[in-house]
Amino acid sequence: MRQSFDKDAQKAFSLFILKEMGYDFSAGRLDESVHPFAIGLSPGDVRITTRYLPDDVTSALFGTIHEGGHALYEQNIDPELAGTPLCTGTSMGIHESQSRFWENVIGRSRPFWERYYGELQRRFPGQLDVPVEDFYRAINVVRPSLIRIEADELTYNLHIIIRYEMEKQIFNEGLKAADLPEAWNAKYREYLGVAPDNDAEGVLQDVHWSGGSFGYFPSYSLGNMYAAQIADTMERELNGMWELVGRGELLPIKEWLTERIYRHGKLLEPSEIIERVTGKPLDPDYLVQYLRRKYSDIYRLG
Known about the structure:
The protein has helices spanning 7-21, 59-75, 92-106, 110-123, 132-139, 153-173, 180-191, 218-237, 241-246, 251-260, 270-278, 285-298, and strands spanning 30-32, 38-42, 45-50. It folds into two domains: 7-139 and 220-298, Neurolysin, domain 3, CATH 1.10.1370; 148-217, no CATH class. The chain has twelve helices and three strands; from the N terminus they run αβββααααααααααα. By secondary structure, the protein is mainly α. Strands 1-3-2 form a three-stranded mixed sheet, covered by helices on one side.
């Protein structure tokens, strides 16, 4: 997993997967940025970016899939809502449910790589000479890490808790900007047992605070919960969902989500969306069950 991977080949594979997901290139494009993001100017212009690392073949890909999930939401809102305040996602929690769903539930699944691993190997001849099962387990390895967007699914929410607790300290307890690095490093040592060597891999790694997006980070954890609950319903309603993924037939998944989530834009509240789709209010137990099932299998916990 750690060797030099050609950037152009990484980009070509990212573009290929976006097409497989149903991303409309006549209404958007993929570019490069230091921090991946998606921006929707209208359903006819939804652009995304990713970040290429020379020694990591999956970082840019999962960034692309994540932002592609956001883009599918924005591209598939009912055209009748265009030009109104309703022509956007209903909340950032629901928005992040789509990015996290596509990135993790689909993109880090075994059936996904049983279909696409051969495609990846062909783009990097002689570099990924291991069985697909080894690759699948490698991209789902669990370890404490410094960078939120590179974190595995199990430790990811600890990164969110740290940021949420610090935001409360800023607004409720007067934590000063000058004291943020020290507070950040202390929480990483406490929660994850690691500490950054510099602020670039510490408190400055995210663009949210510098952009004024305080209160945004919990949307990612909400998104993880929504995604697991939505996936549970999809597995029961969409006949042979994982067989479709294993064949690379991702469009029925996009269509299922479009009908139940994307097309409504901001017409429905998040609580209405999750209850309409799953028949229940948001319940974190679905995420717990998803993680326990997946990682018990990967780590052969029995």
